[in-house]
Amino acid sequence: MESSERLAKWSEIWKEGTMDFHRTDVTYPLRNNIDKLTNGQTGLRILVPLCGKSVDLKWLADQGHHVVGIEGIPKACEDFFEEAGMNYTETDIPEIASGKLYKSDDGKIQIYCSDIFMLNKSIIGEFDAVMDKASLTAINTEERERYIELLKSVCKPGTRMIVMVVEYDWDKRENKVPPYPFSRKDIDKLYGEWCSLEEIEKLDRTSTTGHFKNVLGVPYLSISYLVHCR
Known about the structure:
It contains ten helices and nine strands.
């Protein structure tokens, strides 16, 4: 999928205000496992890819970390700072035409507004931790390896990640759009060669009305992994 086509699709979703994936509270697996993600440290540089206007950004900054988000839609970036009540600046990203960098006045939160695949290590740097709230599940199947290669390039040896996915029967779903399903086999294939993996949370939504059940239209499992880069 071309960059313009990909961003146009998500821009329309934000314009219409139909973000069924947006939550107004801190992501539970993050709150419950913050010490595992950070190894009990503060002052880490943490990446939140495809962050939207997630309140996780401010929560992580409030824990004493430097937070870098990636988001393709300007409205999502602006909404985040406005809803958080934070002053910010907006500057161009010199290497990317139409790319913007949104930065809180205290410098603790930065959001790169760009197609994620136009970014690289020389632009965004390296990270001590990554919070993948559901970024992986939003990436088109044919672009997953490209996404993983980007992560490999910006993660240090020892970087820790929380990766959240959903598992469900794709064939039973009528609306074939993200979030895409992932089995443990899928996760092992993407991360197994360069990381160790530990399942840290599993919520069974096969018989309850969980957040994504209305969105997906099918029962599902919500699974979070702690991924430790070698």
